[in-house]
Specification:
about 280 residues, alpha/beta, globular, disordered N terminus
């Protein structure tokens, strides 16, 4: 998922995010808790806690409520969270989507441009951010790549959440960053394809029908059975909550899955492409 002022998937940090994170860190340390101990109490990994404290990840309301309970329930975190903001121009819908994503029982992504962020190997992510226009500094590339790797933890940390990916074949054949990066990326995806909660499907180049011609999309199902969607273009993005509109995109994704190679055939194709490098 990419959109707003973020760079292909990960939202940019802001001073208010860093300030809020430092506030969380100060309260945690005052309580005498390590990141690992604190994370266990708010049901997060120590890496996720670090990302919030360093301002790389936007906290959501569930984190704030859990942290309040652990750190004295003074209301200070709630008040501070109300003032957290993104960089100018970052759309409000992303905050809602990020919160919904954390609770979703299933997440689905179709991509026609590049490997979805949740499946990107670190060298591939660096190559993606290294191609940004306007260019990023080395520090920005490092921060973005690290944030992307941290976000991927959800695939392994949430074994009861289903993750589905459909992507066009040309994406996995493109040698972005060179052969070594391409090999690492294919190995990375093949590793994730072994997880029971992850399905990867490839839309073959010779397929004569294609339900995703309107572009990439992301879908999720809430614990209550609601279906939402997210659509994006360059520098734009939109959270779709209207049931009828979201239903259309969910039907499109279902059609895409039926048109693409099945997961086993997709893995075989990825292995053949890997063998050609």
């Amino acid at each position: 998922m990419s959109g707003g002022v973020e760079v292909n998937g990960e939202p940019e940090s802001s001073d208010s995010m860093k300030t809020f994170g430092a506030f969380v860190q100060g309260l945690r340390e005052h309580a005498g808790l390590s990141r690992e101990e604190f994370g266990a109490r708010v049901h997060m990994s120590k890496h996720s806690v670090a990302s919030i404290e360093l301002g790389r990840r936007l906290a959501d309301q569930s984190f704030v409520e859990a942290a309040e309970g652990v750190l004295g329930n003074t209301g200070a975190l709630r008040r501070g969270f109300e003032r957290v903001s993104r960089q100018p121009g970052f759309a409000v819908w992303f905050r809602k989507w990020a919160a919904l994503e954390q609770e979703a029982v299933s997440l689905a992504t179709y991509e026609c441009r590049l490997v979805p962020g949740l499946l990107q190997a670190e060298p591939y992510a660096r190559a993606v951010f290294g191609n940004s226009i306007p260019p990023l500094s080395d520090a920005q590339v490092e921060a973005q790549a690290e944030a992307r790797m941290e976000r991927q933890l959800m695939l392994r940390e949430r074994p009861n959440t289903s993750f589905s990916f459909v992507m066009d074949e040309h994406i996995v054949r493109r040698r972005l960053g060179g052969d070594e990066v391409a090999r690492a990326q294919l190995d990375h995806m093949l590793g994730y394809a072994q997880l029971r909660n992850v399905e990867i499907q490839i839309m073959p180049l010779d397929c004569q029908v294609h339900a995703g011609l309107d572009g990439p999309l992301a879908l999720l199902e809430t614990p209550e059975g609601g279906h939402l969607a997210y659509s994006e273009g360059q520098k734009t993005g939109r959270l779709i909550v209207d049931p009828k509109e979201a239903a259309i995109l969910h039907r499109r994704y279902a059609t895409l899955r039926s048109q693409a190679l099945c997961p086993l055939e997709s893995v075989s194709l990825l292995e053949r492409i890997r063998g050609e490098l």
